[in-house]
């Protein structure tokens, strides 16, 4: 079952002159088994990592992530800490 944990809003300008201005809904789910069927037209890559590994990688190479990823990561971790 999906759980809606709120929204994030962000605006980012890119080097190519384009701007992304979005309001995104953040939903989470818990599962013991997951089969991924990634649409390669929508996602460049997909991988599983621990929260600790993600936090470390975000600190070391924030440019490796999309503009919205850190906002979602922080929102999810805040939600999990409140549970």
Quick rundown:
The protein has 83 residues and is an alpha+beta fold. Helix content is 29%, strand content 25%. The chain has one domain (3-82).
Description:
By secondary structure, the chain is α+β, with helices and mostly antiparallel strands. It has one domain (3-82). It is 29% helix and 25% strand. It is built from two helices and two strands. The chain has helices spanning 51-60, 69-82; strands spanning 3-13, 19-28. A two-stranded antiparallel sheet has the order 1-2. A hairpin with a 5-residue loop joins strand 1 (3-13) and strand 2. The chain is globular. The relative contact order is 0.20. The model has no long low-confidence stretch (mean pLDDT 91).
> What string gives the helices and strands in order?
EEHH
| Number of separate structural domains | 1
**How many individual helices?**
2
Strand content: 25-35%
- Average pLDDT, rounded to a whole number, is 91
Please tell me how large the radius of gyration is: 14 Å
* Spans where pLDDT lies below 50 across 5 or more residues: none
Distance between the termini: 16 Å
> Strand count, sense and closure of the main sheet?
2 strands, antiparallel
Protein name: Isopentenyl-diphosphate delta-isomerase
EC number: 5.3.3.2
Keywords: Isomerase
GO molecular function, one term: isopentenyl-diphosphate delta-isomerase activity
């Amino acid at each position: 079952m999906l759980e809606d944990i709120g929204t994030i809003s962000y605006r980012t300008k890119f080097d190519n002159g384009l701007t992304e201005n979005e309001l995104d809904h953040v939903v989470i789910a818990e599962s013991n088994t997951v089969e991924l069927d990634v649409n390669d037209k929508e996602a460049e890559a997909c991988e599983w990592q621990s929260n600790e590994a993600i936090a470390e990688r975000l600190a070391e190479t924030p440019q490796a992530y999309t503009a919205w990823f850190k906002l979602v990561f922080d929102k999810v971790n805040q939600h999990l800490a409140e549970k």
